[in-house]
C-alpha cells in the first residue's frame, strides 16, 4: 500500500497548508467530489433504514458539555473553552451526542417512536498534539458519520444487529476490508462513568450481538460512558485504528433526564446507542486512498469519464457524449489538448475509470471506444450502450468496471 499523503497530493484530493494549521486539511475539488458521493450514499442508506437526519452546530455552551460529562472526563482531548463574558462560555464540541440528546428531549416521546434514530454527518474537534498529526488519518477537525439510536432496553439487541448489517453493507460498497472486530471494555482506573451493574449489562448485550463473529477483547479501550464494538482497519504503515463503532450508553440518558411514555403510561428511560457506520470522512478517505491505491470504485471516483476526440473533427461528437454523461449524473469531462496517447496516459494516471475515445470512424458511426483504467480495451460500441454500461456500474456501486 502507498501512503495516502503522497497519493492525496498527486491526485489533488486534499491539501495540507501550514497556514491553515496542522491537522486541518482542505478537501480539493477531486477529493470533495469523491467525499460528496460517499456522503450521499450513506445518507440514503441510513434514510432507507429508518434514520432521520438533523443539523446541529459544532459549537455549544460550556454547560452543555458539563452536563454530558465531556468537560469532566474528556477535557484533555478538547480545545480550551472560549470565553465571551463571565457567563457566556463556549466549547468546540468533541462529539455530537450532547446535541442529539437535546434533539430527543426537544419534546415528549412515546414508546411508539422508539427506536428513534437521529443521524448527522457533523463537525467536531479534538485538540490532538501537532506531533501525531498527518494527512487525513489524524486531524483536529473531524467530519463524523454519526447517529444516536434511542431505544428501550429490550430493543438493544435487535438494534445492534441491524447496525452491524448496515456496517457490512457500507463496507462492501466502499471496498473496506476490516482488519478485525474488537469488543472494547473498561480498564482499571477512575475515568469511567456509571456503576458495575450497568457496565456488565451492556457488555453482555454486545457479546451476544457478536455471537458468530470472531473478535478480540481489548481492556481499557471503552468509551468513558460504556463498552463498544469497534471495527478496526489497518493503514499502509500497518497501524490499526477504529473505523466503525457501536457504543452502548446508559449514562447520558440519565444525565439529560431523557424519558419516554410507556404503553402503561409510566415514564421510562431509553438506552442511547452511539454508532458510526464508516467513521469520519477524514479517516475513511485516508484508508480508501491507500486500499484502492487511489483507484476508487467508479461510483465515487472524482472523475468517472474522460472523453477524448482524436482530432478537431470529432470535437462535436465528444462534446455531445460528454453532455449526455453529465445529464445522466456522471462526472465527465472532454479533453482535446495534446496527443491521444498522452491524454490517455494522463487520465489513467489520475485513475479515471473510463476513457472514451472518439476517432473519425467512431464519430461517423455514433460509436465510442472505451478504455478502462485497468488497461482493458472494449470493442467500439454505440454511444448509448457505452453510457448505459457506465451508469449501470455506477448505480450498482460495483467495484468491477464492466
Ligand atoms: Zn455519541
From TrEMBL:
Enzyme superclass (EC): ligase
SUPFAM superfamilies: Class II aaRS ABD-related, Class II aaRS and biotin synthetases
Pfam families: HGTP_anticodon, tRNA-synt_2b
GO biological process: threonyl-tRNA aminoacylation
Keyword Manganese: no
MF GO annotations: ATP binding; metal ion binding; threonine-tRNA ligase activity
Gene3D superfamilies (UniProt xref): Anticodon-binding domain, Bira Bifunctional Protein, Domain 2
Entry EC no(s): 6.1.1.3
Aminoacyl-transfer RNA synthetases class-II family profile domain mapped to chain residues: 29-297
Catalysis: reaction(s): tRNA(Thr) + L-threonine + ATP = L-threonyl-tRNA(Thr) + AMP + diphosphate + H(+)
GO annotation, cellular component aspect: cytoplasm
Full protein name: Threonine--tRNA ligase
Keywords, in A-Z order: Aminoacyl-tRNA synthetase, ATP-binding, Cytoplasm, Ligase, Metal-binding, Nucleotide-binding, Protein biosynthesis, Zinc
Family assignment from sequence similarity: Belongs to the class-II aminoacyl-tRNA synthetase family.
